[in-house]
Amino acid sequence: MGKIKLPAKAKLFFAILYSDETVYSQALKNLTEKFGEMDEEVPPFRFDLTGYYEKEMGVGLEKGFVTAKELVDKSTLAEIKLYTNSIEERYQREDGDRRINIDPGYITPSKLVLATTKNYQHRIYLRGGIFAEITLNFKKGHVEFNPWTYPDYKLKTTTDFFLRVRNKYMKSLRRDS
């Protein structure tokens, strides 16, 4: 029998897709109030890699990534996703369509895990209607994609960002151990 050992905390991030700059700013404020200071960011970029969200959110979408300074327990990912869903609901239009989509996830030494409400064969159920998938793998200083990795997670800007965040996270783990 293996000895049970609790894993290290993880680096929390948020992928934020939006159609309204004001809503984006308010959502960042909400995330900061709940999870503390945000310490890293990919400035928002034009999100035109898929038309999946346009019917609901409109055209001219922007997407950005931010990370929370404080590390989180991995077991809280479903709770975090439920909270980000409540932010999405807070800012939805009168017709129920969203103006913002916030997908939380975390980074560990070996992978990037993304929370979602959508089930599929490669996703593991957490709780409360929330699933998790390994979106990226970190191996020997570079990023490896999975067949289901979203196109925006394959962009050089995005992979460079997540590698930089992972490296800083790894240094903090070594320093704290």
Automatic annotation (TrEMBL):
Pfam family, one: DUF4416
InterPro entries assigned to the protein according to its UniProt record, in alphabetical order: DUF4416
Superkingdom classification of source: Bacteria
Protein name in the entry: GTP-binding protein
